[in-house]
Amino acid sequence: MSIGAHLIELRKRLMIAAAALIVGMIIAFAITSPIIEWITAPVRQIALERGDNLSAINFGAVTSAFDLRMRIAFTIGIFLSAPIWLWQIWAFIMPGLTRKEIRYTIGFVASAVPLFFGGCYVGVMIVPHVIQLMWSFTPDGAANLYNAADYYDFVFKLMLVIGVAFVLPVFLVALNVAGVMSGKAILKGWRVAILIATLFSALATPAADIVSMLMLAGILIVLFFAAAGVSMLFDRRKARRMAAEGLLGPRA
């Protein structure tokens, strides 16, 4: 295909993806109420424990409530339309891939997607503990009026960051398959990996919430060692295949 034909194909794929996103947003807008009720449950629990109305989500502008629903609809719409826009991306790049590359790509996507959503779920589990802990530092008689947009950004960004962190081991395996890093080289960096996982967990969770920090760090460390193990397994299979083809000499 010529460059012009590629651009036409890209435009068509983008239009289909955009249409799917709009449909997903329309569907998501209808379920924003239960989502808002779900993510604000920790704040209502705080108000219940305090026995007053000094803890609540605050909508400071006339359009704040509508803006929040639109932002939630956009986020959920991306997830709902993911099968369509992911397929459009795949359909655009697949003609330029070999069978082996296609097989590896499918394997990586099949691994990355559940890991990402698993990370988001861990983020959902951590959020109530974080909010409860931060509330515990509020002086007596003070109010906790959380700005709706800031509160949603906090919840969404925490889920997104932890979700992406869960996918990073897949990229380590991808680097191994591409021949950039060997499994042994990945495993040698275990000290650095533990340090990074601990620092990331400390930044993603409040300093005083040791339980959440250790839980998140432990999961990330396990995923790192799993990626190293899978990479070493791939290296062993590759070495056996090359030895069978006579590309490797006898080991000393």
TrEMBL record:
Report which superkingdom the organism of origin falls in.
Answer: Bacteria
> What's the family?
Belongs to the TatC family.
Q: Which InterPro entries has this protein been placed in?
A: TatC
Membrane-topology annotation of the record: Multi-pass membrane protein
GO biological process per UniProt: intracellular protein transmembrane transport; protein transport by the Tat complex
Cellular component per GO?
TAT protein transport complex
Alphabetical keyword list: Cell membrane, Membrane, Protein transport, Translocation, Transmembrane, Transmembrane helix, Transport
Q: How does it assemble?
A: The Tat system comprises two distinct complexes: a TatABC complex, containing multiple copies of TatA, TatB and TatC subunits, and a separate TatA complex, containing only TatA subunits. Substrates initially bind to the TatABC complex, which probably triggers association of the separate TatA complex to form the active translocon.
- Where found in the cell? Cell membrane; Membrane
**Pfam families named among the record's database cross-references:** TatC
Q: What does this protein do?
A: Part of the twin-arginine translocation (Tat) system that transports large folded proteins containing a characteristic twin-arginine motif in their signal peptide across membranes. Together with TatB, TatC is part of a receptor directly interacting with Tat signal peptides.
Listed NCBIfam families: tatC
MF terms in GO: proton motive force dependent protein transmembrane transporter activity
**PANTHER family recorded:** SEC-INDEPENDENT PROTEIN TRANSLOCASE PROTEIN TATC, SEC-INDEPENDENT PROTEIN TRANSLOCASE PROTEIN TATC, CHLOROPLASTIC-RELATED
- Under what name is this protein listed? Sec-independent protein translocase protein TatC
Q: Spell out where the chain crosses the membrane.
A: 14-36, 72-93, 105-131, 154-178, 190-208, 214-234
Where it mainly occurs, coarsely classed, is membrane
